[in-house]
TrEMBL record:
Keyword NADP: no
Annotated GO MF terms: acyltransferase activity, transferring groups other than amino-acyl groups; GTPase activator activity; nucleotide binding
Domain C-CAP/cofactor C-like: 9-152
Domain N-acetyltransferase, first and last residues per copy: 478-615
Organism lineage: Eukaryota, Discoba, Euglenozoa, Euglenida, Spirocuta
Protein name per the record: N-acetyltransferase domain-containing protein
Family according to the record: Belongs to the TBCC family.
BP terms from Gene Ontology: post-Golgi vesicle-mediated transport
Keyword flag Nucleotide-binding: yes
Organism: Eutreptiella gymnastica
Amino acid sequence: FFEHMPCNPADLKVSRLEGQSIIRRLGSVEGNQFTVDNLKKCTVLVFDYCDSVVIDDCTDCTFVLGPTSGSVFIRDCENCTLTVAAQQLRTRDCKKLLVKLFCPTEPIVEASTEVEFAQWNVAIPNGNVLFEKAGLKASSKNLYFKVHDFSKSNTSIPQPHWTTTAEVPEIVVYNLVSEETGGETEPGLIPDAIKSAYDADVPVRDVKLDHKGNEIKDMPTAQEPCPETKKVVGKVKWYSLANGCGSAICDDNLVVFIRRKTLPKGIKVVAGSEVEMMVSQGPRGWQSVEVLTCTPPPPKEATNGGEAKEDSTKVREEKASKKEKAKKDAKKEQEPPKKAVKEEVDSAKANKKKAKKEKREQKKIQEEEAKKEQKEEAESTKEKTKEEEKEKKKEKKEKKKEKKEQKKAEKVVEEKDAPPPGVATVPGDEGGKKKGKKGKKKQGTHDDPMQQQLAAGQCLPGTTKAQEPVSTLQRGRVEIMHYTDDHHVRMKTFLTEAGMYVKSLDNRQMLRKQIEFDPTSIIIAVTDDIIIGTVYCLYNPWQAFIYHLCVHPQHRNHQPTVANLLMDKAEKQLKARGIQCPTLFVERDNTPVSSFYERRGWFTTEHCLCMGKDL
């Protein structure tokens, strides 16, 4: 893109005029957008290059636009003539247009009728310079005849939508009168980009314009007799019968353009003909006005007689035959004998076959070895699986033995820790070993007030001394602390022995993620470096949950109860974080656990429904 030069904004738009002539000279547009709208019976001449042109709502108007680097868009126009050179042209809702176009792309017609396309036929001042600034190249092909119709299938628009004509009736040369002198003219020149598109017989019409764009009709045309006509004699350099034009070199090296129209009837012009003609100065240089005589060039004379010619031809033929024989003999000497070639070919084929067989045998051997290796691997894996199954069975047997031994030890401890005679016991609190529906062991509760008094170390009715609480670790010390990754092995053994281990939630990776998110979320009870209880305190800014409250069966009678110690720690921790109403879940049939929470002040919400889904 070229750099836009500053210009008067008023020169870039023409609007709402009737019966006037508008002209824009060089430097008035300078590569900017030019717009026209609402004109009637006007003539618009733009002898400058534009970026783009938009024409709207014009009737009975004539437009001659300089080269345009972008697109020319014509809308809602009727009975207008447009001469333009542009990169792209498009019409919409137009009727009865004559478009004389130079365009390297296909023109577009949309919702228009009776649009006729022809070739650009205008010569304007500084034509070559303006074409270069607009980026239109001489090598580009003029595609004015390749029209693309967007409304081709629309039957509501009258036919024909568009037509094309290849004939150029004349070339119009615009000459502008200088504004400063008033007498000198700026001659209009045909640009090189379109000069080759016209036949030599096309007449040329000169149009002289004043500074307001009005035509001055006192200028003679190129077809009228010119006072500078003179007679010359020369020799034809070239002449094209297809194009009907040529050139001749005359006296004083004067190059004259020969036109077919100036030749008399029955005379054929070829290169080398001697020509006598009347010539005059035209817009494209000296050109023929009338060819007076034309003598063809003399035939070439023979240098030798007929016999000499025949002898020379025979000698040439003999020499050519000798050369051909010598070439054939040389080829035969260079080529090896056919038998040797066949033997070499056969040996090469045999070698290829052997190589193929060897490759096949190697592949078979490799496949057999691979199959053997696979069989050996399968057998070794089977043996390994068998050994692993045996080891698993052994581990199961050992676990069963350990459980039996633990049960025996528990019985012995219970017998030792049985209360002395005269001390009341609370029914239904034998170690809190009740099971729920899913086989998980639940915590023991103290529903009887007598048992609560015993747990608190108070005196029973009718006694004078406080009874010692019943526990398997009466002298042990319980510590409440937060879970760390070092506790995982002991945590897993504790949960499995208590029947509360859930692999998907209590594995090491999940617990590690939880304490990374909140290091205080898992609370454990430890005595003698053994985990005997745990509770999960899950927290987020909107809600908090109590989950996985569990106490080892052997330590559920410890006083004060491990469950209360864990819940005290969890509730204090949530209260410090500003949680006012945490939530927990209890099975409906697990009355001991629900009564334990109720004694601690927890209440049920009947309007809520707990739901879940296996993903």
